[in-house]
Amino acid sequence: MTTPSWQKVLSTLAGERSRALYARAVLGQPLEAAPREVQRLVDAGLLTPELTVAGGLFKEVLAAAGPGTPKGVDRFFRDGRIDGLPRAGQDRTDLLAHLAERLLPADEEISEPEVNRLLATVTRDIPTLRRALVDHGFMERYPDGTGYRRVGTS
User: Fold this and answer.
1) Is the pLDDT confidence value at 6 over 80?
2) Best CA proximity match to 25, nearest among 7, 48, 1, 6
3) Whole-number average pLDDT of the chain
4) Are 73 and 107 in contact (CB under 8 A)?
5) Are the C-beta atoms of 145 and 111 separated by less than 8 Å?
6) 102-118 burial, b if ≥16 CB within 10 A, otherwise e?
7) How many C-beta neighbours within 10 Å does residue 77 have?
8) What is the pLDDT of residues 97-125, one digit of tens each?
């Protein structure tokens, strides 16, 4: 049997009568219900066809409704922030390109405090990220240290 969707479970339990019947089943009390009322609980997966409480249903529904495994650069983010940079390779380059495009304005000089403020929205380790963006050619630091600008992205 496939796991019912969380919407099906909740929509069934939204009805007061279904909720009361399910509570009786959980407590091991007689259902005393019309066949269609009991069938609604079975169809939702709350009861088995043998009219016993479906053990583990809520864990199964939550697991099925959980977010999938992040793909691409999204896998480096936790709650909108990065814990650190990938050590090397294409993952590091892809993440830095994504951050440069997402955070840094194109064709505009920005001061170091402004760069730091922008980078702080995604990391606690601002100097490492700023240095990596420069080292990998996504951001240029002016020789006199007066500012930065995004490069290498379109």
Assistant:
1) yes
2) 48
3) 89
4) no
5) no
6) ebbeeeeebeeeebeeb
7) 14
8) 999 999 998 888 999 999 999 999 999 99
Residue 147 one-letter amino acid: G
For residue 74, the 8-state DSSP code is G
Q: Among candidates 31, 56, 154, 118, which has minimal Cα distance to 40? A: 31
Q: Which two tokens stand for residue 72?
A: 């691409």
The residue count of the chain comes to: 154
Tell me phi and psi for residue 9, to 5 degrees: -60, -50
Q: Are 133 and 100 in contact (CB under 8 A)?
A: yes
Q: What is the dihedral of CA 51, 53, 54, 56, to 10 degrees?
A: -170
pLDDT tens across 76-101, in order? 998 889 988 998 799 999 999 999 99
Distance between the two ends of the chain, CA-based, in angstroms? Answer: 50
CB atoms within 10 A of CB 4: 18
What amino acid is encoded at 23 in this protein?
Answer: A
Helices (H), 44-82: 57-65
Indicate the pairing of strand 77-78 with strand 139-141. unpaired
Provide mean pLDDT across the span 39-43: 91
For the entire predicted model, the pTM comes to 0.58
